[in-house]
Amino acid sequence: MGRVNQTTEQIYQYIKAYIEEQDISPTVDEIATVCELSKGTVSYHLDKLEAEGRIARRWYKARSIRLTEVAVNSDEVTEEVYAVIEEGIQQENLAPSQREIAAACHISRPTVQLHLKRLEVQGRIIIGSGHRQIFLVKDEAE
């Protein structure tokens, strides 16, 4: 296991233990102090954990790191993302942005991207090249 992977895992294990003990997540400063890393390095590893789907964060909110169980809730989150898109298109006649989807589902933008790709592979949406270019695929039975 490389140094980066070891550090990422060390941070993940610290977050997990901290949440189990305190019922809240640690701050970036606390993680940096305990793991003897800079805040920038901690942020890099938190981004990795988030991209892997192991944690979710709410931007600009302290102590908002939460552990995710990707294998357990992946389908549930995908359905929630789809519902937010569907509702946005029905109400506004416009797909929500990735930022809006992330806020509505309380997940990160990299996690939104992961679920958008899943929906596209499932043939339920088409992702265009523009900012709000998400289209629902009509069911042929309709």
Structural write-up:
The protein has helices at 3-22, 28-35, 39-51, 70-92, 98-105, 109-121; strands at residues 55-56, 66-67, 125-127, 134-136. By secondary structure, the protein is mainly alpha-helical. It has two domains: 3-67, Winged helix-like DNA-binding domain superfamily/Winged helix DNA-binding domain (Arc Repressor Mutant, subunit A, Orthogonal Bundle), CATH 1.10.10.10; 71-136, Winged helix-like DNA-binding domain superfamily/Winged helix DNA-binding domain (Arc Repressor Mutant, subunit A, Orthogonal Bundle). The strands form two sheets. It has a two-stranded antiparallel ribbon. A two-stranded antiparallel sheet has the order 3-4. Helix 2 packs across helix 3 (39-51) and helix 5 crosses helix 6 (109-121). The chain starts with a helix and ends in a 6-residue tail after the last strand. The model has no long low-confidence stretch (mean pLDDT 86).
Provide tags for this entry.
single chain; 142 residues; mainly alpha; Arc Repressor Mutant, subunit A; 2 domains; two-stranded antiparallel ribbon; 60% helix; elongated
Largest sheet: 2 strands, antiparallel
| Helical residues, percent | 55-70%
Shape: elongated
Order of strands across the widest beta sheet? Answer: 1-2
Distance N terminus to C terminus?
51 Å
Domain unit count: 2
Q: How large is the count of helical segments?
A: 6
What's the CATH architecture of the largest domain? Orthogonal Bundle
* CATH C-level of the largest domain: Mainly Alpha
The percent range for strand residues is 5-15%
